[in-house]
Amino acid sequence: MEKPTPAPIKPTVSVADVEKLDIRVGTIVGVEDVPKSNKLIRLRVDFGDHTRAILAGMKSERANPQEIQGRQALFVVNLEPRRMAGDLSEGMLFDIGYADGITPVLAVPERPVPDGVRAG
Length: 120
What we know:
The chain has one helix spanning 15-19; strands spanning 23-33, 41-46, 51-56, 72-76, 82-84, 87-89, 92-93, 95-96, 105-106.
């Protein structure tokens, strides 16, 4: 695998800006196809006190998207809900690699933690 050149660092932000993001650990309890999309899958994510549907553009990135079912990952949970391909997404999967053009991987906790725990 070729080592990509790191992207330039983005402009400086304040700690207050970072604290606006609510990033939490959730367990992916379901992985479903979004029929009207070539890219999107619907993740059912357990955050301990509730479950959300979060759409992720990983249909073509994995031979078997079902392989992430049961895994914990990081999610941004305080984004405005967004309609994509006729379906509503209630957050965003926090993955690693997509912005740099490599096949993304999940951002995961080092060991299991309670669902709903905040990152940061």
